[in-house]
Amino acid sequence: MHTDVLVIGTGLAGLSYALQLSQRKPKTNILLISKRDLMEGNTKYAQGGIAVVSNFKSDSYAQHAQDTIAAGSAENNPRVVDFVVREGPSCLEELIAWGANFDKEGKQLHLGKEGGHSANRIVHHKDQSGLHVLTTLIDKVRSLHNVTLLEKHTLVDLITDHHLGEQGGNRCYGAYVISKDDEKILKLTAQVTILSTGGAGQVYENTTNPSAATGDGLGAAYRAKVRIKNLHYVQFHPTALYPKIDGATFLISEAVRGAGAYLRNEKGVRFMEHYDDRMELAPRDIVSRSIYAEVQQQKHPFVFLDLSHLDSKTVRDQFPTILASCQQVGIDVFKEGIPVYPAAHYFCGGIDVDDHSQSSMAGLYAIGECSHTGLHGANRLASNSLLEALVFAARAAAHSVEFMDENPLPNSFFEKIPQWNGTEDISNEKNESIQNLRKQLQTLMAQYVGIEKSHQSLEVAEDRLHDIYMATKALYQENKLTPQLTTLRNMVSVSYLIIKQSQEAKENKGVFYNLDYVN
Ligand SMILES: Cc1cc2nc3c(=O)[nH]c(=O)nc-3n(C[C@H](O)[C@H](O)[C@H](O)COP(=O)(O)OP(=O)(O)OC[C@H]3O[C@@H](n4cnc5c(N)ncnc54)[C@H](O)[C@@H]3O)c2cc1C
């Protein structure tokens, strides 16, 4: 299959890119693929909303920029922060023009508040912002004639000069993907390839990310020698619901603390006063580490989020999904605290890109959570990731139009690219081993590369990951490639990069915390 633009990932980043590109160049053929159904990815689960300066009486671009840089421990790129906060309002307007509705107070947008924000600036759709935006954009994309949607197809590898047997070239020509239903590997060639594959929280045992968030774009980019940066900045969300629901970790949005909920330890003490003046609304790294520290000193593996003192109507209106999930596990939030603990949530680093989302490989762009733009620094400010996806999707669309106009390749060129040269006809009886290795890797990362690390823990992690790598390699060489196996291969690569970049980090910043650097 050949297309002008191949977009791998149908979250907010991939979909808004496709819409932006279609507005600029309506005749461009765009092929969008997703690993599962179109909906499944981190965007669907985003509750809080999008951080955008909207009320210029109580807020300003400078304040939003300052909050972003304070959360990111000044490891952010200030120029990127500046243009992202300034371009936020026009991206929001576009999102509304595409059909999205956000909660209002009278005629104005209702603006929520979250940790680390000095003003109310979170635009939201109840506590289902991601789900609402995603369904709106999918409807809009489906109405476009230039867009083809291909579900249940998993990226295997990017197609680069390496596949043409050419040394020294540095351009991407599409990707090999594997279909979930018949496990056939397809060659998808394109003038421009967009990675919008989302996060990689699944490399950890406890994560707010859905099971598809395995860092596949990062793994494929790493194999193609594309530059990847800051993977050691893994953000843990302080308040995931304990216990899991149907094996998945459910997030209790930061907006609940923004609305005034308290964190209490098992003795009922509001412990954040011992850690930070901003109390429950301190940045996520501080709240997560504080919970981690409290849990070390008590019997229960969780603390409590208490919202019993809040107005019940407000709670019901603003947090219907959270209420329903708590009810599902038998918690009456008006009478008792919600048990919560930190879980891996967001990757601040990723595929390193420039101001237009271009990676270090020509023709390859990365947008959304799989990218590293410089916005987040060492810690992402709450609700800045949907904003980042929107702003960089628009920028990538503008730039990729120019790139295609200036660097077109003839169709005959793509015909030279070989079909996937894999071991298609050998047996595949190793699904159980793949599952076991995936679990081993998740436990290893949680134990040794979690909220707190040390030189020794990273060394142990490196050693044990090597064993998992060797076992995965053997499976890969002896078995037919399956979506599960290619996913495991990516999880191993991402874990390796997190460990390596953690070892290279020489000081504690933001979410990165090595006990050997304390004091
Ligand atoms: C529970 C939760 C709550 C959050 N709340 C907020 C919030 O309130 N505000 C905020 O700003 N951010 C929030 N975030 C973060 C935010 O949702 C994500 O960073 C953002 O949605 C990422 O969008 P994306 O388009 O980059 O990726 P995703 O939405 O994760 O989409 C990734 C896409 O890539 C596809 N894909 C992945 N691997 C492959 C592959 N190998 N082959 C083909 N396709 C593939 C998936 O199928 C999916 O379509 C939250 C995250 C979670 C998990």
List key phrases describing it.
alpha/beta, FAD/NAD(P)-binding domain, Flavocytochrome C3, Chain A, domain 1, Methane Monooxygenase Hydroxylase, Chain G, domain 1, four-stranded antiparallel β-sheet, globular, binds flavin-adenine dinucleotide
Small ligands present: flavin-adenine dinucleotide
CATH fold type of the largest domain = FAD/NAD(P)-binding domain
Give the count of helical stretches: 15
Second rung of CATH, namely the architecture of the largest domain: 3-Layer(bba) Sandwich
What's the total number of strands?
Answer: 19
Which ranges are low-confidence, i.e. pLDDT below 50, for 5 or more consecutive residues? none
Largest sheet: 7 strands, mixed
Question: What general outline do the C-alpha atoms trace?
Answer: globular
What percentage of the residues does DSSP assign to strands (E)?
15-25%
Distance between the termini: 57 Å
CATH homologous superfamily (4th level) name of the largest domain: FAD/NAD(P)-binding domain
What value does the Rg take, in angstroms?
A: 22 Å
Helix content: 25-40%
How many structural units, i.e. domains?
3
Average pLDDT for all residues: 95
Structural class: alpha/beta
CATH class of the largest domain: Alpha Beta
